[in-house]
Amino acid sequence: xxxxxxxxxxxxxxxxxxxxxxxxxxxxxxxxxxxxxxxxxxxxxxxxxxxxxxxxxxxxxxxxxxxxxxxxxxxxxxxxxxxxxxxxxxxxxxxxxxxxxxxxxxxxxxxxxxxxxxxxxxxxxxxxxxxxxxxxxxxxxxxxxxxxxxxxxxxxxxxxxxxxxxxxxxxxxxxxxxxxxxxxxxxxxxxxxxxxxxxxxxxxxxxxxxxxxxxxxxxxxxxxxxxxxxxxxxxxxxxxxxxxxxxxxxxxxxxxxxxxxxxxxxxxxxxxxxxxxxxxxxxxxxxxxxxxxxxxxxxxxxxxxxxxxxxxxxxxxxxxxxxxxxxxxxxxxxxxxxxxxxxxxxxxxxxxxxxxxxxxxxxxxxxxxxxxxxxxxxxxxxxxxxxxxxxxxxxxxxxxxxxxxxxxxxxxxxxxxxxxxxxxxxxxxxxxxxxxxxxxxxxxxxxxx
Length: 449
Hints:
single chain, alpha+beta, eight-stranded mixed sheet, four-stranded antiparallel sheet, 11 helices, disordered N terminus
């Protein structure tokens, strides 16, 4: 054993602690302070190697997200609440004098440069396993929406968001849409900018990259939580009106930490996952409920308690799977206001309790978790000071999350480093624990390159 100095981020400060943990094995520590410098060096290095001109480029940084409720509620009509977190996509870009795009990814450097002329992106469904479908999709979606793209750019992308659960695809999509619009001096035209300079149309366009171009059944939770995220605030979305509210935290943010538990697994696109099955089941459930309660129910979230109880009595024998999906959404919706009130009042213990209960529902009723995700949850649940834990995002693979009291962070790190490789030795060099700050979702950086 060795004494290791563990550097971790709380929501608004950096703290150094000492703990005794076993050396060797996965990346169970994360030092956030050097990540931006690392990103810039990676961007410049790949651009130099591939002959991309980003000298003097701007860098747009888009965040990850951490959903506090209701996970999988976006395509079922519930209210949503979450925060932006400081695992990022960085996109360095410099306008060209022609209509070509030349772009490469540090994370997929072997793919080299993706190059094409704006307006001529390959048809939807092309290159289904290539990251280049995202920049191609941004061109396709904006062109289809009537935006005349005439100015291209050279660009390099780098990201440190885990491969599932924290919305790296949504982060990249938002980044690409905003970059193409900026380079072409365009503003959203369907939905004007609000008083904060935001337009819900950006959410819609980013979502269409995944739904219309890639063929992934993506909801809009991820795009909202990233695009509207503000440092130190929670983002509350009301689907009936598309209204976004920013909710202050009712306590000192340094009293707890949010952890992302990267299992080292890499989930394939949502179109290849259990998410697609659950999305289709919920769509069928909503259609059945609309016929049962015409004019009263459009989504699962519209069910009243009386309608829910009646539906469960009548359908459970014949439609068990459908009933389980309805059950999770109805119960999580019922906990939502408890969680929101607890956030406002600073009762983080209750926020954690609701987070944990939602996790039980996702695992046992919605049935969308995965073995590695649940091993992470089982490990951190044993650590004193862990207030709640559950899987994150689309499910199957990727990352779980936890909420812990300040001071418990090094013990979470030590527990995961000791126990996770025993359950999944094949991931011994790939897993990681990141304690994250609540941050702005979109930031434009200049003078870095």
